[in-house]
Write a structure and sequence with these properties.
12 helices; alpha/beta
Length: 358
């Protein structure tokens, strides 16, 4: 008898209420049964390394649907050739515990839907033709959403949104949920997926949950585990720069150059301050972009309309620690890899005046 079965029978281990499925036909069979029974399905696609942001989306899906399907799949086609595919955190044992506890919470509450399956497909099934490629001009069957996917993140990571759109199209075709859930932290991703769903007439509704933050304001991300204490403290510089834009907006600033400069001046000063410190003390970073964009199209604006507001977003790359100190708390990988951080806030009059994040 397998050990896991013995543990369940002895009470040492609880049987999970949800099924672990890796087979696409098995997932489709489960979905057909839900459809036959008239059960709605909310779908939360993830790459694992689950944090409270993911769990908040699952809670939202459970409030709004009978069944919740969660996928965990580290999609190779959204990683560039020199990006962190091989080192991306894979934490299924802890992810499983988090999902079990969350589903127990749903069961106790009684008003929530339940997690019915965790879908963990294999790459050879997700990409059954040619092996997946991360080359810009690589062969394969891909979904491209342009020009949206060429801006901001897409300018620095040219294959990223091609990979995101492709895997989301595959997952939505497999699961066929009533609703699919994404977080606002990845704001451009939500725009890409919404456009794809609209343009390809997919029968699902895209729901966007708010950005979940740590107590000090840092946007939750699976990549935060790479940040040791020194880089973790410095990582807040991106959010603080966005708040500088918020301050200018609250004072009546509407011109792009004034809003943009507020963030860039703050980041540039912080950058110079770090570069002036000894190698054993500093946490250097590179500025990628600051965007002041229309909240409906994500196109850059020259002047923010007071009524509509704007989405202010940015990205920085935290560089590896140059000289780790004895006893210093380091992140996963010992702070030897660059870590890309993104964040965004919504500019509107109420939030700006009271300093809220949205």
């Amino acid at each position: 008898m397998p050990r896991i079965v013995r543990q369940i029978l002895s009470g040492q281990r609880k049987a999970t209420s949800f099924r672990l499925i890796s087979s696409i036909p098995s997932l489709r069979s489960l979905r057909r049964r839900a459809l036959f029974l008239g059960r709605s399905v909310g779908f939360v696609p993830t790459m694992g390394a689950l944090h409270q942001g993911h769990l908040a989306l699952i809670r939202q899906a459970a409030r709004e649907n009978d069944h919740v399907y969660v996928s965990i799949y580290v999609n190779p086609t959204q990683f560039g050739v020199n990006e962190d595919l091989s080192s991306y955190p894979r934490t299924w044992p802890t992810d499983k515990v988090k999902l079990e506890k969350l589903d127990e919470e749903f069961q106790r509450d009684g008003t929530f839907g339940r997690i019915r399956t965790v879908f963990m497909p294999k790459t050879e099934d997700m990409y059954p033709g040619l092996p997946p490629t991360s080359d810009i001009d690589g062969d394969g069957s891909f979904v491209t959403i342009t020009p949206l996917s060429k801006r901001l993140e897409g300018a620095s990571r040219p294959v990223f949104f091609r990979g995101v759109a492709t895997v989301c199209m595959k997952l939505l075709n497999i699961v066929q949920p009533e609703k699919v859930y994404f977080g606002q932290k990845d704001i451009q991703q939500t725009f890409v997926v919404k456009r794809m769903v609209q343009d390809f007439q997919l029968n699902t509704k895209v729901e966007v949950g708010p950005t979940m933050r740590e107590a000090d304001g840092l946007a939750m991300s699976s990549r935060n585990v790479y940040l040791g204490d020194r880089r973790r403290k410095m990582a807040l510089v991106l959010l603080r720069s966005l708040k500088e834009v918020q301050k200018v907006f609250a004072r009546g600033g509407r011109k792009r150059r004034n809003l943009y400069n507020a963030a860039m001046d703050f980041l540039t000063l912080a950058q110079k301050q770090q570069e002036s410190l000894p190698r054993g003390q500093r946490a250097k970073f590179e500025i990628d972009y600051i965007s002041i964009a229309d909240p409906n199209t994500l196109e850059e604006v020259d002047e923010v309309n007071s009524k509509d507001g704007a989405i202010v977003s940015g990205a920085i790359n935290m560089l590896p620690i140059e000289e780790p100190q004895e006893g210093e708390m380091l992140g996963v990988g010992d702070d030897t890899n660059a870590v890309r951080l993104i964040d965004n806030i919504r500019l509107d009059l109420l939030s700006a005046k009271v300093g809220l994040l949205s």
